[in-house]
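User: Before I run my own analysis I want an independent prediction to cross-check against. Here's the chain; please return only the structure tokens and, at the end, one sentence I can use as a sanity check.
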Amino acid sequence: MADPDLIQLLTPEGERVEHPDYSFGAGLTAEEEAEQIRGFYRDMVLTRRIDTEATALQRHGELGLWAQLLGQEAAQIGAGRALRRQDFVFPTYREHGVAWCRGIDPLQLLGLFRGVDQGGWDPHESNFHLYTVVIGAQTLHATGYAMGVQRDGLVGTDDPDRDTAVLAHFGDGASSQGDVNEAFIFAASYNAPVVFFCQNNQWAISEPIERQTRIPLFQRALGFGFPGMRVDGNDVLATYAVTQAALDHAREGQGPTFVEAYTYRMGAHTTTDDPTRYRLSDDVERWKLRDPIARVEAYLTRNGLADADYLDSIKAEADDLGAHLRAGCRTMPDPTPTSVFDHVYAEMPEELRAQRDEFAAYLASFEGEGVSA
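Assistant: Structure tokens:
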């Protein structure tokens, strides 16, 4: 039986369906709509390639760790493409697709997981914050930033190039963290322009969603005083439409929204995890039939919106991206030990400078033993 609360615009078989409250393509010509869907397809294919290449690099010892997103491409691309330039994103450590949408070179993501930096991109250039490993902490950061946006007068001006929303990503497991619930309280109390976007992939590492909550996650929003909705997270059209509406709601000054993107983590939590120890292969096989990329490809080909040449061109682009990642990852220079002190403050305070100098002197005591500051 279909979930009546699940917002869906494209079925797993690749057929368009109507929804009373949300739609895709309003105001677009048929060709513009087709071009946008082809763009979603390209984004998802390339994002999946980033994920598979990074996983392979980790298996070959080139990365210390990798957080997989296999199966969550539609949730991330739909949300990422709904953003405007001035919006700001606070990710977890798994939003590789959203990073792609914000123009982050995926090699910069690999640098973090290779351990050569702590995030090599400038958040102010892309309006995409550094990855957050502390579970749920980014929701507080996002709410605080949204309150700042509000006080700067960047909400409710009716200027589409000025009004700003904040998008906070987290997973179903993080929804049990105190930080997330505190962020909900602050956002509701101050009517902050933030969208809480939960990718419910149904596994908090090894804990199934049934052991995390007795009600659907989106219904929790009501208890905090703001709207929540559940969208088919494997449907890129629906995810885009719902996130776009939620962001508009925030930019207009109407406060926070909770979006639960109901999806499934096809891979492992990270490359240190073995999901075969706690979940059934039958579940994975069932979710393969809801693959977010396959349903868009089915829609495009069935309706004559993409031919074999187009699909081959995307595959070739993915191959080029894979080669770029393999070559770039292996040639990343190792950082100097004292570089950990750089970029901590805009202007290094004397106390930190003294710690750096002391550490450099300590390293220098090993001269001749292959250790350099």
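Sanity check: The longest strand covers residues 194-200.
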